[in-house]
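for the record, two folds in this file. i put them one after another cuz i was lazy. first one right below, seq on top, structure tokens after. the second one comes after a little note so u can tell where it starts
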Amino acid sequence: MQDRGKDQHAKKPRTNALTYREREFLKLYFGGMAQWRAYLATARTPVTETSAKSHAYRMLKRLRQKSQFQDLLVAGNLDDLRLIREINKRFRAKRTEFYQGKAVATLTDNTNLQRNTELLADILGRRKTEVELSGAVAVKGYIGWSPDNWDDPVPAPAEPVGDGAAAPADGALPDD
């Protein structure tokens, strides 16, 4: 006899275990494949590249919440301590300058330093994405202005056309 009090089509509660598909996705992703390509490789139905990027982002976001995902990171030595060590190592990155095929200097890699500074700011939640301006902002210039004309006087604004004023001599049509 059928139990009429239960909804037979209700979704099963989600478990914290990783599914086969999620494990395959992570295997490809941790293997160096872009997350959207890993999603395309494990998708059950064909999707576009744009959809794959969106779905892969959501899947990875959801997977990060699972305890098994965290266990995999710890088992793979990809925990917070490793992150700190790797970022610290990259802050000391050097690059070699060559002249006529011979190394002439070893310098701090400023490009790498900048990227890692931004990464660290993102991780710590201190990166600003918006800039607020307040107060009066003075801008010197006009349409067609270039820095070469910095000291030239700004031309006077054109006379308004309409309301009984004569049409300009350059042939522009007046407002109706």
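(here's the note) second protein begins now
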Amino acid sequence: MHQMKLTTVISGKKQDLLLIFDEAQSVTSIFLDGREVTFHGKNSVPESGELTPGEISVYMPFFSKSRECWFEGCEEMRSKYFEEVEELDIKYKGKCPSCKKGGVIRKYIQELKDANVPPP
């Protein structure tokens, strides 16, 4: 089992995203700012249109400002993502529920997938 930790700063607030993987490199748990985000585990079948844990983990580098962009339009798309999350932080006065941020992350992962963006 291993972990991948990504850190971003939104509205001056440090936000940590932690992914926990099993030996088969499947995501088993996702934590945003220390709170677990619920998702379908590796042994469940996602509902039609839902992202698999593997799809989620492949695109997680997109959400890190410290990672290089690797596809055309990445910087613009990443900027829109951070603007959306910042708007949530403003709306919820810095206490945005992880489910709302998780929804934004899923939205952008789906956009990456739909655009056939290759993994980094």
